[in-house]
Design a protein that fits this description.
The protein is of the alpha/beta class and about 500 residues long. It has 16 helices and 22 strands. The chain is about 40% helix and about 15% strand. The N terminus is likely disordered. The structure holds NADP nicotinamide-adenine-dinucleotide phosphate (NAP) and magnesium ion.
Length: about 500
């Protein structure tokens, strides 16, 4: 029941009540829907097997710092076993299977994932710190949609590449980050399998659990052993996978820094490469925009999901005539965001994924203030344990500021102003990245012109952070190359 409260609650894992805010009663999702194992092994050749390394690393819940379980650490020998299993599966089963048969498995995986959606959502929130509202309404349904979508393509590849004969590449090594653990696994695995490739997947060190649950789904779907193998570990494990000589393709999503290392490691080999890297999106608000709707778009673009989104609208470009109004409204809205227990259905902002990530956010915001930005954070008490950062606005930022150039990957918005559409484009393009952008205006011509001139793989008009498996996603410049999703996503996994 809703009750008006005053003051801070400060209870660990609870949404915080603030002065004058009507607080909701806690509405936690039950943890009991998922059984977390005390130990997770590697998923190789269709079975969960202990690592040859004999090593395990702890996995923590970033909202509480509790250890959830321990996870196998794959070394070079384990990776070799996984690659060999994938090669065998490619040569003896999957590479020769008809598209129609491959589609059946992908449909089956999608349906099982759908049936087990709650389990996946709760596990994702526990492991990553993201609010259950996001994992339940965004991550899991989109992951399911990707499997359904690419299942539909598996027997129609001849139509996708008209007049040409598409063949699978072979074995793909796929490395994914911690911000959308299950969804990134789906983005990578579904098109690879649809095109007849087999896979060795390496999830991020801090968020391997939903990938391991996906391993169970593959067993349930009776996917032939070795078609997908999952090796857990850290950055070193990822580097060893990249260097394995018996791979035909590397697909990587993560930071630009690691992407560059991978590009060097792959240069001169036969491996194909796609890179989905960082971003510093411009979210542009023109004076004729529907301001209240734009405020919701901005909040969705940077604060939900703790700003742990590669395409987050982290630079807000507001036309000068409405800048004060927009910032004032945004501040009011921020004061009403609920930061706390990721499993609470009312939570807007969950936990920061890891302590190093929290420290990085703190460091970059401090640099922003040092360089002259004005800091706004609502008065909100954060839980005493776990990794938390309040929603933050930095105003009086200029393009030369570090916070206008570096990816912060946290709930931090840098606000810049502009006077003319030309200036908006110029500021938006003043970045080494080019992943995404957003534009709010009531003039169709203005949004189309902006979309044509901004260098970004995705441009959202009068909305933000909307995804669909049929729509390609990917970047320009230091945001990487190659596209995932849609017809384009198939092209990354076939030889024509
Ligand atoms: P990251 O540090 O680059 O890590 C990404 C993955 O690479 C993790 O699995 C990581 O393993 C592994 N890795 C680390 N060092 C490696 C190496 N030398 N060789 C091979 N693999 C290595 O990135 P992150 O901090 O996890 O993720 C955040 C970044 O991802 C942000 O920059 C964000 O913009 C980007 N991102 C981009 C997209 C997109 O579609 N463009 C989508 C989501 C995220 P460990 O975790 O075990 O260290
Ligand atoms: Mg974790």
């Amino acid at each position: 029941m809703a009750m008006p409260r005053t003051g801070k609650q400060g209870r660990n894992g609870q949404s915080m009540a603030r002065e004058g805010v009507w607080e909701y009663a806690p509405a936690p999702e039950s943890r009991d829907v998922v059984r977390i194992q005390s130990r997770y092994e590697l998923f190789i050749d269709g079975a969960f097997t202990p690592p040859r390394s004999g090593r395990y690393f702890p996995n923590v819940n970033p909202a509480t710092e509790e250890t959830l379980s321990e996870v196998a650490y794959a070394d070079a020998e384990d990776i070799d076993r996984a690659v060999q299993a994938a090669r065998r599966a490619y040569e003896t089963v999957w590479g020769n299977l008809s598209g129609k048969e491959r589609a059946k498995y992908l449909f089956r995986i999608a349906r099982i994932l759908q049936e087990r959606a709650r389990e996946f959502a709760v596990l994702e929130s526990l492991d990553s710190g993201k609010p259950i509202r996001e994992s339940r309404d965004v991550d899991v349904p989109l992951a399911v949609a990707h499997f359904f979508y690419y299942a539909g393509w598996a027997d129609k590849l001849g139509y996708a590449f008209h007049g040409r004969i598409p063949r699978p590449l072979g074995v793909a090594g796929q490395i994914i980050p911690w911000n959308f653990p299950l969804l990134m696994a789906a983005w990578k695995i579904a098109p690879a399998l649809a095109c007849g490739n087999t896979v060795v997947l390496k999830p991020a060190e801090t968020t391997p659990l939903t990938a391991m649950l996906l391993g169970e789904v593959f067993q349930q779907a009776e996917l032939p052993p070795g078609v997908v193998n999952i090796v857990t570990g850290d950055g070193h494990t990822g580097a060893m996978l990249v260097q394995h000589p018996n791979l035909d393709k590397i697909a990587f999503t993560g930071s630009t820094e690691v992407g560059k290392q991978i590009q060097k490691a792959v240069a001169g080999t036969r491996k194909r490469l796609t890179l989905e890297l960082g971003g510093k999106a411009a979210h542009v608000i023109f004076e004729d925009a529907a301001i209240d709707q734009a405020i919701e778009g901005i909040v969705n673009g940077i604060y939900f999901n703790q700003g742990h989104v590669c395409c987050a609208g982290s630079r807000l470009l507001v036309q000068e005539s409405v800048a004060d109004l927009v910032v004032r409204k945004l501040q009011r809205r921020l004061a009403r965001l609920r930061v706390g227990d990721p499993l609470d259905k009312n939570t807007d902002i969950g936990a920061i994924n890891s302590l190093p990530q929290l420290r990085k956010i703190e460091r970059l915001v401090a640099i922003g203030v040092q360089e002259g930005a004005m800091l706004y954070q609502p008065d909100c008490a954060l839980p005493s344990r776990g990794y938390w950062y309040p929603p933050t606005i930095l105003t009086q930022v200029s393009t030369a500021h570090t916070v206008a150039q570096e990816e912060i990957f946290g709930p931090v918005l840098s606000v810049l102003t502009f006077r003319t559409p030309d200036e908006a484009v110029q500021i938006a393009n003043n970045t080494r990245y080019g992943l995404s952008a957003g534009v709010w205006t009531n003039k169709g011509s203005r949004s189309l012109e902006f979309a044509a001139r901004v260098r970004a793989g995705v441009v959202w008009c009068n909305t933000y952070n909307k995804f669909d498996p049929a729509s390609p996603f990917g970047g320009y410049l230091e945001s990487g190359f190659g596209r995932e999703g849609g017809w384009h996503g198939l092209a990354a996994y076939v030889e024509l």
